[in-house]
Specification:
Structural class: alpha/beta
Number of strands: 24
Amino acid sequence: MTFAITQSCCNDAHCVSVCPVNCIHPTPDEPDFGRTEMLYIDPRSCIDCGACASACPVDAIFPIDKLTAPLAHFAERNRAHYEGRPADPAWAPSRFARSLPTSFAGLRVAIIGTGPAACYTAQTVLRTTEAHVTMIDRERVAGGLVRYGVAPDHPSTKRVGETFAWLFHHPRLSLRLGTEVGADVTLAELRRSHHAVIAAVGAPDDRRLGIPGESLPGSLSAGDFSRWVNGHPDATAPDLAVERAVVVGNGNVALDVARLLVSDPETLPSELDPQVRAALQASRVREVVVLGRRGPEHAAYTWAELEALRHLPGVGLVVDDTPGVAETIAAAGPAGALHGVEREHIDWDAAPDARRIVLRFGSTPQEILGATRVVGVRLHGVAGRDLAAGLVVTSIGRVGRELRGMPFDEDAGRVPRQEGRVIDPETTAPVPGLYVVGWAKRGPTGGIGANRFDAEETVDALLDDALAGVLEAPTSAPSRRRGMMAGWAAATKTTTA
């Protein structure tokens, strides 16, 4: 019986490297890698060895006869990927990790952040050098977006953090939590005490609509919602004593927010914060309207995330049948994922009589309405109107933030870089000893697994510079102040600095 890859695929390609028959694609050396929603197993070549399932960090791979009903369609999804493709593609060239001579054992590297990009980077540095690594995070819990950005009902995706557990036990790694670079320690201090500093600070800010009423109580960003639902100690609970909520955006995060707002709290993982569970149990939200500012052909969510909404117990999924939507869906292409989803002319003046998620396209918010709190959204576009709602969550992407002392491209929303080296915008030359990785490097694109290969590129640049004598020797010892901790238990539990 062959295996199939399912919804929670993280695309980090550990499965590719252990497959003995080259049946998992696209591989990191193929042009489609990073452009497909997930990786796929070719059932024509799979020999049922199970090596991929053992290597998968997020438990996304199963024998097809073991797929539960909500996942059964992934068997066909994997098979369909290989239609018209050869059954015996060429093997990619072997990949060998770079390394430094033992004479570089005194190398000291600081990594700002503890999310996936930071952890992949630390992993690569520790495995290929004898360097001592310091990881620094302003949060009091390690994990970055894996901890506070992944939906809590995706526990297998969160499980990727467990693959980094060994890092926090490593004798050459120090961890400083509750320490903000630019406030508690400066970038200049880190550079004086380390040969190299790598920024893995992500894209921490949510993009804003820039419309009136966006700051009203009852209006929040998807990042704010995600931090709350994941139990961030400083997050503010949204008011869920409303019947209709609006989510602005058409990506996976928007669907995550919509799904969590109408899911039965008893179906959510036991690890869910008790206060969050209590708030969801008391919630009056029965309808969530997901607003796409463009048509369904431009929706950015993946097929797998949309499919998950079809299997949500006790929750309906419907497309608002506005002019042109039916024709666009019938034309297939990206909108074809909506084939089979019920379409309905929604009576927006009627109160929802059942829990459901409504996908509405071609509607741009012009204003969030309300005097003292949100009472609705004024829409422009197809069948523009005022839509009554007590909660608005904006999910239109993320953007980087300038780290004090680090060059930053405001227009691109990321650090100017070349192969992981930070570039001085005035001289266009690399800044010695300063590097960047992850979303801070490439912008907020790509999932968790994309950071693995991104980290390898940045570390390769660092190793090249070390061998070339570019890195300046530290002039001071690393500071031991504030939040110095070690160990996975300490890294994953809320602590004071």
